[in-house]
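Hi Y.,

Following your request, here is the sequence exactly as I used it, all 217 residues.
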Amino acid sequence: MNPDKLFDYLEGKLSTSERAELEERLMSDPVARRELTVARHIHADMRDSREILGVAEPTLEERGAVLGRRIAIAFAVLVFANVVFGIYAIAFMKQKEKARVSTEQNRSELTQSLTRAAAQALPTPSFDVDEIKFTAPVAEQDRLANKVIAAAKQVGGSATKGLADQQGVLLFAEVPTARLNDFRDSMKKLGATLPSPAAAPSAGEKTILQIRIISAQ
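Below is the corresponding structure, written out as C-alpha cells. Let me know if you'd prefer a different format.
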C-alpha cells in the first residue's frame, strides 16, 4: 500500500470516500493492517518530535524528504518481516524433512528385523540334506501333508507346511530326538522313502526334519 496514503489517513487528509475505502481494506487485509501499525508509530514519533521542539509545519521539500524516509523505513520493516518469515519457513521445512527421513529409516529397520525373524522361524529349504520323500498325485498331496503334521503331533512334536508349487509340497517337522525313530516309522507306514538314519542321533532335545511330497509321474 502507498505509505503516503496511510500518513494522510492518520492526519485526516483523506476524503470521505477514500477513508471508507481504506478502512474497508484494512478490515480484510492483515498485511495492510501491519503497514498501518508501522505508519502509526512513525507518525506518532514525528508528531511528538515537532511538539517538543516547537517546529512549524514542514515545507513541501521537507515533507518530501520526510515522506522518503517514511517509505524507506516502512520498506525496511516489511523486508525484515519477510526475511524472518522466510527463515522460519526454511527451518520448519528442514525439521519436517528430518522427521520424514527418520520415519523411513525406522520403517526400513523394522522391515529388516521382520525379515530376519521370518528367516529364523522357517528354515530355508535345503537340497544338501537328507529328506523324507513321498510320491503322491496332486489331488492327494494336501491330505498326505495333513497326515504328516498329525504324525508329528503324535510323538510330541509339530510340523508346518513350507513351500508349495507345481513340483509338490515341502514340510518341516520338529520332533523330540527321543521319539525320532517313532516318527520315522510312522512316515514309513504312510509310504515314505526314508534316507539312511544318521550314525548318531542329534544331541539336541529336538530334531528338525525336511519332508517333501512330489507329484507322481
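The two ends are 90 Å apart (CA to CA).

Thanks again,
Q.
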